[in-house]
Design goal:
about 550 residues, alpha/beta, Rossmann fold, 5-stranded mixed beta sheet
Amino acid sequence: MSTHDVSADSLALQRLYHWERTAPERVVLTQPLGGGALRDYTWGRIADEARRMAAHLAAQGHEPGARIGLLSKNCAHWLICDFAIWMAGHVSVPLYPTLAAGTIRQILEHSEARLLFVGKLDGWEAMRPGIPDGLPCIALPLAPPTGYVQWSAIVEQTAPLAGQPVRAPDELATIMYTSGTTGMPKGVMHSFGGYAWSIDAALKRVPYRDDTRVLSYLPLAHVAERTLIEHGLLATSAHVYFAEALETFAADLQRARPTLFFSVPRLWVKFQQGVSAKLPPAKLKRMLKVPILGGMVRKKVLTLLGLDQCEFASGGAAPMPAELLQWYADLGLPIVEVYGMTENCGVSHATLPGVQRPGTVGLPYVGVESRVDPATGEVQMKSDGLMMGYYKEPELTRAAFTDDGWLHTGDKGVLDGEGYLRITGRVKDLFKTSKGKYVAPAPIEDKLGANVAIEACVVTGANLGQPLGLVMLNAEAAAKARDAALRQAMQEQLAAHLQGVNAALDPHERLDCLVVVGDAWTVDNGFVTPTLKVKRNRIEEAYAASYEGWVGRRQPVVWAAG
């Protein structure tokens, strides 16, 4: 936990007032409305709407620092809403726009949210049951039909909040819920000072200016987008374009033509695959070696991707394969690898622009200290961007820090001779998919194990698109499965079980498939401990090389030996 050495004028609300005063006509947000229509927002309009909603919130009589929920896909009003919550003296609680109803309810009840803003969403009807009865709700523009009072109606009828209410650096700004090792979301508390320090540290390495263009499409409820987009906007007055939908992403990218672009490895791979489908890799490689032709091809490929104006490309949340980094470097778009987590505002390490170090996550940002615990190999770090702690969880908060105040990252790592950090694994069982999402396996394994045919199971899949479940059948079920006719019935029963388990999980937790292993996991062969707990490292050693092949079969239930 940190104290904040930041100037008052670098804090979020002070930045908003600065732009409201000095650049009220400057367009900084561009929102697609569907059907090709767009709406631009100036600083003047942003501040005016935020002030009007802040006045409405202030009139509700909530206690100072009341928690206000925000459930929406990225849009202009996500940011305006956040500014209004802060201006009214409250704390924002953003929720991922893909959460299952049960998780939505869990977060809203745990945070004791006094009100919820509901915005642009897909699948609203499945989420609606997660809203606690009696919780006041306000519908943002672009929200699905909800029956809630409309943002626009409130703004039209409410006079703007006067003056420049500010929040102190050590005041709580937001609670960001992230999965813990038990699967119960933990509320990471960040202060205004922590965010101000973090974006300042990031800007020392990232070319983020008033002429920068960015595309906002990764969830704003995630720390990377929150720091880079929201606080980057407030710090620099850059132009933020919003993506409309998955189907329009290519067009959204073309419209924004970002000068700064961040993505997870999975999307960088998709871009590469899209190019390879039109231009075979071997042919592209040959063409890039021809002096004049190579330059033309680079320009054409990057223009096709919407990245011809990109001067700073970065990737994070999961490892980037060396071959992928080289492919983009050959195109003239070297990718900076970044490393961070919710607990440190996403600002920890990054490779240097133009300096490729495949397999590493680079060097600490200015002001970040890092070390590797010689006893456990755990990466630990310290900065002024660290969380205030976990909301209502003093014991978890204490456990998150060493006795001398360093944050436990939970990642294992090694430092090379030049100080570059290489992440080698997780100290505990929590793992990340290639989409950069944490998965806590234990609760999912509990659900899988409820099936009477399953004797033991492991949920795994670090750096895959989705996790998968490995299951060992009990003796009776295994005997049935050896009979071809009975195996089909067993397969259908397991597939139905998988469907039921997935229905109760958040999208990033859902299992691609169940793999029925033929081996028996015993104490003797080292797969389980004397207390019959499955050894995850032994599982990985035995099966990891087969994961992609099993997933590639595109079947809900895969027989490892078949």
